[in-house]
Amino acid sequence: MGSSKKHRGEKEAAGTTAAAGTGGATEQPPRHREHKKHKHRSGGSGGSGGERRKRSRERGGERGSGRRGAEAEARSSTHGRERSQAEPSERRVKREKRDDGYEAAASSKTSSGDASSLSIEETNKLRAKLGLKPLEVNAIKKEAGTKEEPVTADVINPMALRQREELREKLAAAKEKRLLNQKLGKIKTLGEDDPWLDDTAAWIERSRQLQKEKDLAEKRAKLLEEMDQEFGVSTLVEEEFGQRRQDLYSARDLQGLTVEHAIDSFREGETMILTLKDKGVLQEEEDVLVNVNLVDKERAEKNVELRKKKPDYLPYAEDESVDDLAQQKPRSILSKYDEELEGERPHSFRLEQGGTADGLRERELEEIRAKLRLQAQSLSTVGPRLASEYLTPEEMTKRRVKKIRKKEKEVVVRADDLLPLGDQTQDGDFGSRLRGRGRRRVSEVEEEKEPVPQPLPSDDTRVENMDISDEEEGGAPPPGSPQVLEEDEAELELQKQLEKGRRLRQLQQLQQLRDSGEKVVEIVKKLESRQRGWEEDEDPERKGAIVFNATSEFCRTLGEIPTYGLAGNREEQEELMDFERDEERSANGGSESDGEENIGWSTVNLDEEKQQQDFSASSTTILDEEPIVNRGLAAALLLCQNKGLLETTVQKVARVKAPNKSLPSAVYCIEDKMAIDDKYSRREEYRGFTQDFKEKDGYKPDVKIEYVDETGRKLTPKEAFRQLSHRFHGKGSGKMKTERRMKKLDEEALLKKMSSSDTPLGTVALLQEKQKAQKTPYIVLSGSGKSMNANTITK
Amino acid sequence: MIEVVCNDRLGKKVRVKCNTDDTIGDLKKLIAAQTGTRWNKIVLKKYTIFKDHVSLGDYEIHDGMNLELYYQ
Asked: How far is Cα of residue A628 from the mean position of the Cα atoms in its chain?
């Protein structure tokens, strides 16, 4: 239906366009279209073919449904054709949407076929609107191409075409020939010889002609010369010619030119051709002469030198700091780059007058250089030589001259002199080999004896008795024996005095270091102890200063030793009670700690305690005093302890004297680098309890470790081990073994299942059942049971 | 000047007069003027889609050829 409507619409449109085309009423008001369509159609159809008429009639028939169709068509907005039949309002609405050109198109339709088409003028108008150039109207073309009206094409005559081509070619060839002939016509070919070569007459003619020309030329020249002479120009002309001859280049013109070679490279008797060196066109430097061969040779030599690879820089080769001409050679840095940076400066010399160069100056310079070299003095001194071990004759003569030495006077030295000397920490002279051995310095002996100004005898009697060869020794008569004895005593005294002196010195030192009061106390103590007649060699430095001792250090860091004295091999502290010990310690500690400035140090007091004990021991008699029991509990306890009645299990702890103040450890901590984790050390360390639980002392657990297999059966040790081994190695038993094991397990299971009271076949049970069934306590094994029946047993 | 027939097989058949050196784009504009669609919505085909910038001569579109008219 739609299609029919479309068709109808098209036709209508066609009809209207046809009408427009013919009638010329292109723009019709939409309202009237429907009315006029009918008329136009009829008119239009008349104008167009009979086909149209038919269609129009059909359209007329279907007019009634036109509205309907219009409505339907109005719905389809894309269809342009049916707009002509649409309602006016709709049409207007639609028109707004459409292009303007559409109206023209809709109103004007061509007559050709069903398709709508514009005429040429309309098309041109449209094109103009769109901005395209107008149609190329080519009527013939149009006629020729269309499908509907095929036209026979022109017959293409190949013969004619070929002929035309040939003609063209011929013409072109002829033209070329003409041109060539024109060109070549000027040149004489070989064939055309001069006629006068063969023919004598012609030759004669030619020669005559030539002669004539010559004569003419001469005449002309003469004429010209005469004319010149007339004008006085001839002399000038001659001069010109003459000068040109004179200006020829000669040797004298070479003066001042440089030759870029060393003058030595020119040998006598040799000729070398020099040419101008190449230079740029714009360079306006003066010319330089070179010989090409020499240049090449020089370059080759330079290359050879470069290839030798000599060291660029010889730091110690500065022995030639002076030039050949005794002038300072300028020392430049990185002189190997000078050539690169500043450019090559080849040897050159200038030619003198007459173009000669004799190199006289260079030779003179050489001579001067040689002279100066001879005169030069080297600054390097004679190198060191090995000294000879033997005296040279010169030295032998020298030795006779002896020096007279003065005798040293023996100066009497007294103790008073020594005291100021005591400040010296070191006395350099502890005896002199020259003066003999053991010479006394403090000679209080002299004081005791008569002050005899005699040379001090040496202490060593052997020396005295020896024959002294040395002159300086002087005649020291060996003293007599009483003197020796006295000397021994004197020696002792001497020693004492020396000690005193030393002590005084130390006292001075101490005074410098410490407080006076404490020092005094210290000193007093020391002196007292000394006066007691201790033979101990008191190390003067022991009490006074800090003693670093490896053992003391170690002990300090030890701390408490819990097992100290338990072995019973410690003797010192058994006799004393705790409180006594404490007293001692405090007494000692007080003095000790006060006495020692360095708080952190402590000495092991064992010796001190020992001293104390000695002191106490020495002060008491061998037998203890009678213990007075009624004095008090303490005395009684003491008595008991002495008698060994008490169990004194006192913790004998060797407490190393801890300092009052601990180490100031706030500032630092000792880092134990060994605590760095590594998995191996961690593996080895035991992090559990190292001490036993004290509250679980009586705990003795009954340990039973049971192993089970997969079924839950408890395993024997052998089986358990097998299981472990399988687990460990990662593989179990083989086929045979596992089968055996399974068999064993099955047998065990069967064994378990087996009843203990019965045979495996369950015979007893069967018997019992049979008995139950038969209700007899017996079972007849064989035969029929009837014969033994109770009923049958009769007489 | 050639006349090309464009048919969309849905009832729209248009004969457009144009030059051989016109491009397809120009032809589309002419078609649009006659059919009432927008020219950039038109797709012309003859076995291949014709591109807008090529001339009719290059596509060897002669007088009277039928082109397919599609829409995009």
From this structure: 91
Amino acid (1-letter code) at residue A175: K
Of A81, A98, A123, the CB nearest to B17: A123
Check CB contact of B13 with chain A, cutoff 8 Å.
yes
Residue A141's nearest CA partner among B55, B18, B9 is: B18
Distance CA B41, CA B70 (A): 8
| Interface membership of A141 toward B (CB under 8 Å) | yes
d(CA A33, CA A87): 10
Place of tokens 């134990």: A672
Taken in order A670, A673, A679, A680, the sign of the CA dihedral is negative
pTM equals: 0.22
Question: Do residues A709 and A723 make contact, with C-beta atoms less than 8 angstroms apart?
Answer: yes
Cβ burial A703-734 (10 Å sphere, 16+ → b, else e): eeeeeeeeeeeeeeeeebebbeeeeeeeeeee
A347 phi, psi to nearest 5 deg: -70, 145
Residues 6 or more apart whose Cβ sits within 8 Å of residue A470: A434
DSSP string, A557-570: HH---TTTTTTS--
B57 touching A (Cβ < 8 Å): no
**Sign for the pseudo-dihedral over CA of A688, A691, A696, A699:** positive
Retrieve residue A299's tokens. 């370059």
Whether chain A has a CB inside 8 Å of the CB on B41: the answer is no
- Evaluate the CA torsion angle A110, A112, A116, A122 in order and state its sign: negative
A11 CB-contact burial (10 Å; exposed 0-12 / middle 13-18 / buried 19+): buried
Q: Which residue of B has its CA nearest to A149?
A: B64
Dihedral angle at the C-alpha atoms of A368, A370, A375, A377, nearest 10 degrees?
120
User: Which pLDDT tens digit goes with each residue over A392-435?
Assistant: 788 777 766 666 666 666 666 676 766 665 555 555 556 566 65
Q: Chain A: residue nearest B6 by CA? A: A115
DSSP string, A319-364: T--B-TTS-BPP--TTGGGHHHHH------EE--GGG----HHHHH
Contacts of A260 (CB under 8 A, 6+ apart): A277, A288, A289, A290, A346, A347, A348
Choose among A717, A693, A695: nearest CA to A707.
Answer: A717
Q: At B43, is the secondary structure helix, strand, or coil?
A: strand
Q: What confidence tier does A474 reach under pLDDT thresholds 50, 70, 90?
A: very low
**Pairwise pLDDT comparison (A553 vs A108), residue with the higher score:** A553
Instruction: Report the first-to-last Cα separation within chain A, whole angstroms.
Output: 132
Q: DSSP assignment, residue A229?
A: H
This complex has an ipTM of 0.90
Euclidean distance between CA atoms A449 and A412, whole angstroms: 13
Q: What is the dihedral of CA A508, A514, A520, A522, to 10 degrees?
A: -100
Q: Determine the Cα–Cα distance for residues A581 and A573; give it in Å rounded to an integer.
A: 8
Please report, for residues A426, A498, A539, A595, the alpha-carbon distance to residue A542 in angstroms, rounded to integers and kept in the order given: 20, 19, 5, 12
pLDDT at position A217 is 93
Tokens of A371: 């002279």
Q: Do A118 and B19 touch (CB under 8 A)?
A: no
Average pLDDT over residues A626-633: 73
Q: How would you classify the pairing of strands B42-46 and A349-350?
A: unpaired
Q: Binning pLDDT at 50, 70 and 90, where does residue A328 land?
A: low
For CA atoms A430, A433, A439, A441, give the dihedral sign.
negative
Q: What percent of chain A has pLDDT over 70?
A: 52
Contact list, A153 vs chain B (CB under 8 Å) = none
% chain B with pLDDT above 90 = 54
